[in-house]
Amino acid sequence: MKKLIISLVAVFSLNSYANNMVGINYNDFDSIDGFGLSLSGSSGSFVYDVDVVDMETTVDFTHVGYAFGDVSEGSFYLGFASVSADSRETEAEIGYVRRGSDDVQFKVGLLLGDFEETIDAEVQIPYAGGNLELGLLHDDGDSWVTVGYSWNF
Question: What is the pLDDT of residues 69-81, one digit of tens each?
Answer without folding.
Answer: 999 899 999 999 9
